[in-house]
Amino acid sequence: MPRMTSSERRDAIVEAALNVMVGKGMAATTVRDVAEQMGTSSGLIHHYFESMDDLLAAAFDRAAGRDLDATRAAVARGGGPVERLAVFFATYVRAEQDWAFQLWLDAWAEAARRPAVRETSQRHNVAWQQLLSETIRAGVNADVMVCGDPEAAAWRILSLLDGLALQAVAHRLLINRQAVISWSVSYAEAELGLSPGSLGCLPRR
Amino acid sequence: MPRMTSSERRDAIVEAALNVMVGKGMAATTVRDVAEQMGTSSGLIHHYFESMDDLLAAAFDRAAGRDLDATRAAVARGGGPVERLAVFFATYVRAEQDWAFQLWLDAWAEAARRPAVRETSQRHNVAWQQLLSETIRAGVNADVMVCGDPEAAAWRILSLLDGLALQAVAHRLLINRQAVISWSVSYAEAELGLSPGSLGCLPRR
DNA sequence: GGCGTTGTTGGACAGGCGCACAATAGCCTC
DNA sequence: GAGGCTATTGTGCGCCTGTCCAACAACGCC
Questions:
Q1: Is A108 close to B175, i.e. CB distance below 8 A?
Q2: How buried is B74 (Cβ within 10 angstroms: 0-12 exposed, 13-18 middle, 19+ buried)?
Q3: Inside any domain, residue B164
Q4: A76 close contact with B: CB closer than 8 A
Q5: What band does A197 get if pLDDT is binned at 50, 70 and 90?
Q6: What's residue A1's pLDDT?
Q7: Which strand C bases fall within 7 angstroms of a protein CB?
Q8: Do the domain assignments include residue B37?
Q9: Domains held by chain A: number
Q10: Predicted ipTM?
Q11: Which bases along strand D come within 7 Å of a protein CB atom?
């Protein structure tokens, strides 16, 4: 196979691992799968990653990082705090759709046995909470939201979002994505003292 | 090893499997582990269970079923609808503690690859939602709660509970059990038109 | 152009997995 | 007590896993 620079190859491996993970799930992803996906030998992978744990963590890190970066960028483009918060919800729910949330599910479960995966998922979880709590804090400082503890409120809102996504994945027919976003938006409006409907023109409950 | 009746042996296998699952996680549980835990040969297990999928599902079914039955019984002992709801929260959060929620996490992740586990976790999820929505409906019928759609409200409350438990397990230090119960209780009170504090004397936010 | 460095190969290794199956051991019935 | 039924054993098969390593090949440097 063609020679690559270190960073290119490392990138390609992570990308291949991510592809396999999306298709088969994190727990079922093997070194040989990733090698086959890349079209190289399996030994190559261990030249770039100390262990399978590290590789899975790196692949998950990339997927989760992309979603986080996309949401962070979209939020930053928003005008006022309220609009930024609305963008947060819209982008978050879109990011967590389909295979993405299954990946989070896998990561949480695997975290019990894979230290690197655990570290990665914890780091991203905290990053999401920080992004949301900073958005809330900006709204409070601008006197358009009311919240005594933005940190705690962010945990609560994220918990509801994740819990709803969980239910949506667990039985796809009973809860749909429309419900996830409208319910969580309604909750956030109540939590932050916003008037109903101010966080988006989506049909609400 | 001493001979048992069919049902006794089946029971013992499920119990042993559950013990292993609690200690090592569902994904890491093997036939040989379960056999060793029981003190018998591994071949015996396949006389009672067609596949590992069935065994894992049966073990999870027992664990989840116990929690559900305990909560259902505790709720039934409650006096009025409001007290029953308060009992639901107290018992639910206690049931989901420690290893129990990790088991749910494992089940959700494994569900993608193990049909029997998927069926079992879906069944229990729906059962929890029915228990909660029936409690809510009773409160609405008794004119002590206000809720236009008890089914949907039950999904929202359960989602928040699960999401909070998820965060609590993911980073044990940032959210504790006290927060899980007080935050979810506060949400339920707002959702159902109850006055703050009516769902329990626990310290709230 | 030779040479050292390094990306890359492909297979070996030890271990673990679910599962199957013939042999054994214990109980019940007649 | 004999015979049959079934719970139980122990082993072995085939496959798959992560990791390692000696050999090979391509690139940059002098």
A1: no
A2: middle
A3: yes
A4: no
A5: confident
A6: 66
A7: 7-12, 16-22, 26-27
A8: yes
A9: 2
A10: 0.89
A11: 7-12, 16-22, 26-27
Q: What is the pLDDT of residues B22-48, one digit of tens each?
A: 999 999 999 999 999 999 999 999 999
Interatomic CA–C1' length for residue B9 and nucleotide D5, angstroms: 18
In a domain, B72, yes or no: yes
Is B134 found in the same domain as B76? yes
Task: Count chain A–chain B contacts defined by CB atoms under 8 A.
Answer: 120
Q: What is the CATH number of the domain that holds B14?
A: 1.10.10.60
- Identify whether residues A115 and A170 lie together within a single domain: yes
Shared domain for B29 and B104, answered yes or no, is no
Nearest CB to A108; choose among B155, B161, B166? B166
Q: Does B99 contact chain A (CB < 8 Å)?
A: no
A197 part of a folded domain = no
Residues B25 and B73 in one domain: no
Q: Which domain holds residue A12?
A: 1-49
* Secondary structure in 3-state letters for B179-204: HHHHHHHHHHHHHCCCCCCCCCCCCC
Per residue in A51-76, pLDDT tens?
999 999 999 999 999 999 999 999 99
* Helix segments in A25-176, DSSP class H: 31-38, 45-48, 52-77, 81-95, 99-110, 115-141, 150-170
Q: What is the pLDDT of residue B6?
A: 82
Query: Under the phi-then-psi rule, with left for phi > 0, alpha for psi from -120 to 50, and beta for the rest, what region is A141?
Result: alpha
Domain boundary among B10, B31, B49: B49
Q: Does B28 touch chain A (CB under 8 A)?
A: yes
Q: Do B186 and B132 sit in the same domain of this protein?
A: yes
Q: Residue A170 and residue B125: Cβ atoms within 8 Å?
A: yes
CATH number at residue B139: 1.10.357.10
Q: In this structure, which long-range contacts are made by residues A64-67, counting pairs with CB atoms below 8 Å and at least 24 apart in sequence?
A: A64/A103, A64/A104, A64/A107, A64/A120, A64/A121, A64/A124, A65/A124, A67/A95, A67/A96, A67/A100
pLDDT per position as a tens digit, A111-142: 999 999 999 999 999 999 999 999 999 999 99
